[in-house]
Amino acid sequence: MAPRDSAEPRPPPPPQGWVWPGKIVAVAMGALAGFWVLSLLTYSYLCWGQGLEEEGLLGAQAEERSEAGATGTTQPHLIFILADDQGFRDVGYHGSEIKTPTLDKLAAEGVKLENYYVQPICTPSRSQFITGKYQIHTGLQHSIIRPTQPNCLPLDNATLPQKLKEVGYSTHMVGKWHLGFYRKECMPTKRGFDTFFGSLLGSGDYYTHYKCDSPGMCGYDLYENDNAAWDYDNGIYSTQMYTQRVQQILASHDPAKPIFLYVAYQAVHSPLQAPGRYFEHYRSIININRRRYAAMLSCLDEAIHNVTLALKQYGFYNNSIIIYSSDNGGQPTAGGSNWPLRGSKGTYWEGGIRAVGFVHSPLLKNKGTVCKELVHITDWYPTLISLAEGQIDEDIQLDGYDIWETISEGLRSPRVDILHNIDPIYTKAINGSWAAGYGIWNTAIQSAIRVQHWKLLTGNPGYSDWVPPQAFSNLGPNRWHNERITLSTGKSIWLFNITADPYERVDLSSRYPGIVKKLLRRLSQFNKTAVPVRYPPKDPRSNPRLNGGVWGPWYKEENKKKKTNKTKAKENKQKRSKGRTRKQPAAHSSTKYHPSVTAG
């Protein structure tokens, strides 16, 4: 799709009776403050505060709110920003040609996470962040939750926002959900968020907010809380629209009370779309996908600049912790680069799972440092609950660790291993076998595990090329420039020392069979704790045509109750009939089959 121009609409007048909150500022600052607030409540694409020094020019009101926040809660404000499909190389401080001054500055002043792992695709990373559990412990081991599937994050998992609400946090989500919505109980507002503004699906048009999952399966995908946000169907680019909503939330919240903001941007996931003005610095990039991707990332960087300014303006910053993360590796065919790592999004090579990440906060003890300790996306769950002065139930088996002292003080990480995943459904490796796994593990199964310095992969780990920057020719990642790997016949197991060989160039599986066996046994131990896979078939009732043209919950609770009652009556009749001829054993539960517990 060609890049879309960002003609800036004329700001509408403020609503009648509108009043700037807080104390009256000096007359000299009044006009400037009014302009700022107006920019929040209109559809302007201007960079809020652009060209101004961050210190000293935000106005007297910002100082007053900062003072109020400083005397309020001891619980920190938690801001988790999740980018979508950002490649490992695609940040300035990793050597990218794409300009990310905000990310570079925040990371340089905070703690860069340079041994940080996520999952290779969208749903798994988001589910592990919000539950602190590996996929094998939520049933989401395979693929993503698709729009037509009667599936969602299991309702018996206590989510991060639910735990934060228990200790007084106001919880807000802005952006991409992608954890299922077939039942109302699966929606973000039923999973712990006070408010939700964003999309339910994994992708969609950045301007129209429409998504077609297949021919004839198209619908609108923008929500405010539990209802379609038709009032926002006015062509605003999602990155900027989400940022405006974050600014509005901060403007209306008391900084003396703790807040949790989960900002899950759609960018830089395909489709590759960006407002025209962000292309100005990238006309030298020949590959059109890379150029569009660069423009999208520049817009995202500016958005995070504006979020940071809002945190300062409204008195949150000094008591805030900002965490930035990508949800998985980049997709070279869609402009992303993971160089010098191997592989891409959707694979268990380092390019699919090693992510851009950092923590920025005035509360950090060791600022301006690099953390090379092992950190995983599941670790945010216990870490943030601990920072919030919350409690984790003793009977909850988490896979994450509290790593705040590791990040803030430079202590050793409590984490020594990561189960990247075990997917029993994924296409089996043709040459995999129990024999290849020394009778410990069937190497036909896709799996990956990290234990200290060692990483083991089995089965079919996915696209395995290294894609250098020069591969982005005019026609797309040109495989002539790629360092291509032809997997040798019979190969279904790999071993790497990631500390010594982070680019996975030297397979050590034949040299160290003892290490291979040790990691296979660890895989087997993890697999014994796995729950059945949840990956139900498509449900035709999910079609937006049946739901007013909107993607949204389609499983009706009242229909379930009616059907359940009919089922019970039928079963009781059958029991009475059979009881006349023979004695019956104890009756089984008459609960109606529920698609959410389907095991694949």
TrEMBL record:
Keyword Hydrolase: yes
Cofactor(s), names only, from the UniProt record: Ca(2+)
Biased composition (Basic residues): 575-585
PROSITE patterns listed in its UniProt record: SULFATASE_1, SULFATASE_2
Record protein name field: Arylsulfatase J
Keywords assigned by UniProt, alphabetized: Calcium, Glycoprotein, Hydrolase, Metal-binding
Region (Disordered) residue spans: 532-600
Keyword Membrane carried by entry: no
Organism: Microtus ochrogaster
Span of domain Sulfatase N-terminal: 76-388
Pfam families in alphabetical order: Sulfatase (PF00884)
Polar residues bias (residue ranges): 587-600
